[in-house]
Amino acid sequence: MAARKILPIAEPDITSYAHFAFFLSVLYTDTDALRWVYSNFIPLSMKDFSGSKWVDYYTQTPYDHLVPSLIGSVHLTRKMILRQSPSFADFVRNSIEDGYYVSTNVDEFYIPGTAAYQNRSNLHGLFIHGYDDESRKFHVTGFLANQRYGGTVVDYEAMEQAFRELEPEDDYHFTVYTHLFKLNPKHKPNYDFKVPWVMEQLEDYWLAKPSDRRMQAFEERQTATCLWGMDIYDGLILQIERHIDKEAILDHRPFHVLWEHKRMMNRRLAYMEQKGFYVCSPEAAEGFRNVEKSALVNRNLILKYWMSSDNRNLEQLAERLGRLKSEESLVIERLLNEYEDSLRAGD
User: Fold this and answer.
1) Which of 280, 263, 283 lies closest to 272 in space, CA to CA?
2) What are the helix (H) ranges across the chain?
3) Residue 251: is it exposed, middle or buried by C-beta count within 10 angstroms (0-12/13-18/19+)?
4) 19-40 per-position pLDDT tens digit
5) CA dihedral of 243, 244, 247, 249, whole degrees rounded to 10
6) What angle do CA 52, 176, 223 make, to 5 degrees?
7) What predicted TM-score, i.e. pTM, was given to this entire model?
8) Comparing C-alpha atoms, which of 178, 177, 181 is closest to residue 9?
9) What are residue 259's phi and psi, to 5 degrees?
């Protein structure tokens, strides 16, 4: 075994949540894998979560579904790992030596750079992509200072303790599992960028259609009310009003996801043009750039509110959300009409 090995990673466009940021950090290192990335991450959903609202992308992950570039990834329970390798640190070193990235759950009380370090127990994901036997440190990424996605190093001994001290709620809780990812050289070249699929998802988002109807083979029965696409704006406006009336919790993360979603759309349009898949009009491109700028102002407004507790920021935010919904609706409609016109012109 080599004394040091660092697997390549890249900063992805989406870093809102660990369940996307970790595996996307691998996919963004590969040009083949990017075709799948930019073909997806358009649907959004919103659900109730611990009294607040949870807004997330509705795109499959290798934790639960099939991602073509990562076919062959391995999922192991904590018990399976420790039975085969009494040292978790050695298990990680061996996995990386074999080319696998390691996504696992640990107690961040033992992880330097996190908000919970030496402060409180906090179960959270960590992504390990390298080791160095001389310094006896792992190279990892995670949500560190101020919950921002970034990289650090962790001592072998600290990683061992952080893994062993974690206590999942039950044998099927998501923190039980450790996932090993590796790009599949046979499958990743076979996924083509799909412009029609992009436009179908965008239309569903625009019309607020339930995206789970497209993945019925994977979906369990939904017990919570779920909003889709453009309806999320109305749900967040209502949540703001209820928070002002002290009837609900208002989380900043949905506003970050909304901004990130618009940024991702602009990166997608640039990618499509660069690769020659599809070029939208300058007017549509400018419209989407303006939508992203507006979403960023909204993201900053919710942060400003949490620093000031001034409800005027929330009132302004609710008003801006209504305008952003109309602005985004118009530019999506324009893009979809342009695409339909291009199809008719090609007949």
Assistant:
1) 280
2) 18-27, 31-39, 78-84, 88-97, 156-164, 195-207, 231-244, 253-275, 282-308, 311-346
3) buried
4) 999 999 999 999 999 999 999 9
5) 20
6) 40
7) 0.93
8) 181
9) -65, -45
